[in-house]
Amino acid sequence: MVSRVIPVDTFDLVIFGGTGDLARRKIFPGLYRRFMAGQMNADSRIIGAARAKNSDEQFRAMIHDSLLEFVPKDRQDDKVIEAFLARIDYVSIDAKEESGWTKLKSTVRANVVRAFYFSVAPALFGDLAERLHAHAITDATSRVVVEKPFGRDLATAKALNATLAKYFAETQIYRIDHYLGKETVQNLMAVRFANILFEPIWKAQYIDHVQITVAETVGVDGRGAYYDKSGAMRDMVQNHMMQLLCLIAMEPPYHFDPDAVRDEKLKVIRALEPVTVNDIVRGQYLAGGGEGGYIEHSENPNSKTESYVALRVNVANWRWKGTPFYLRTGKRLRARYSEIAITFKEPPHSIFDDAKGWKANVLVIRLQPNEGMNLMVMIKEPGPGGMRLMQVPLDMTFADALGQDAEDVPDAYERLIMDVIRGNQTLFMRGDEVEAAWAWTDPIIQGWEARGDKPQDYDAGSSGPEDALMLLHKDGRRWREIKG
Ligand code: NAP
Description:
Helix content: 25-40%
Largest sheet: 9 strands, mixed
Mean pLDDT: 93
Radius of gyration: 24 Å
Low-confidence stretches: none
Bound molecules: NADP nicotinamide-adenine-dinucleotide phosphate
Shape: globular
Structural class: alpha/beta
Number of strands: 15
């Protein structure tokens, strides 16, 4: 099936940090793919900005190299690449200095959609916002895109929100959480709210528990110093996993509209119960498989930062009272694997003798690898021999079901950048949402910092620390297997 492409309006997109890792690995390859798909029209332009003194030609050559490195070979078309590169300019600019801003002002057109992507350290957001405003490069119709991390606690997130609010209205600010740009994450909303099947049973009465897993095989080598100030709770739970939890737990919004959706997510965050010490397990990976452990990677021999965290979360409202949400995420685990699994309860009465063959229905939403959904259902085992039961997956892997090449499924960044140009904030975090998430996360982190809790060791290539298994065992449940 060929997906429908609706071209967006003509735009000028300025990417501050245009020479950085994120721009080269994700933003420019994503824009190239949208250009190739015909979504970005030939009048639109991308302006890279950073301190380095590049000419337009040098910058285009750098982006050319990035496309060859990060776009799959079968999507590299010389003619399209050439046409795409012709849409790119470069301005040398320092967020903290005055030089370059006049040139940027004369480069950006007034009569097109203007968007400014802050793909730089958050410490520079204020300087960029202030200078864009002072040089009248932005107006009330411009949009700004900001990257994670959005603060490291409630106080810093509030300060960032206040800084941006000096120059931009909330309707102009696009806080990226790339998990929201994933196809399956949006499909979670479609499955819930475009079908009658699930919503009537989407509650504690029928759902036993929910597991959200984001497992990575890589460690923090190469960015250990940065990660050591963050940890799994700040890096993954407060933002990405919280967003996933919200989409599962939220009430149906009255319309698929930015504020309607974000209002419902905010209510979920506010309904989260405080987490106690018994509801959390933190871990640090050991050396193994020829690689150093967390301690070596972080370059801090006394580090108490967690590279793994598992927690039990309760949503205190009528819909979810009694259904725990178990979250876990970690580095150097057995496989790169992310999924949401919604496990339903037992039928109230079994009419079959083969009760031992019975397994709970599970709706599995897989984020990686191979985005897709599986609904585990019971059927009769084929053949003679009586009524024996077995569980099979109703496989809804999108690439297969839609006859799509997996490479054609847009990457989260492509989708989100096009949403910025369209002016659609539904898949971006609102300021109050981010603050509410920090307000829930802060006491958890402050608790272990005040006690000086040390994370448990776990083997590289394992499923995480032993105690994480116990977190579910003591509730009579088990984690799903982390598999590659
Ligand atoms: P990076 O590789 O260190 O790149 C930083 C960029 O900022 C460079 O282009 C740098 O170029 C520019 N820059 C630095 N100081 C500047 C200044 N004073 N004025 C103007 N430009 C300046 O960082 P990154 O990994 O791309 O990350 C960028 C942002 O995305 C960060 O907020 C990060 O947290 C976030 N993020 C990154 C990833 C990722 O996978 N990389 C994932 C999620 C979020 P010059 O030195 O030439 O100025």
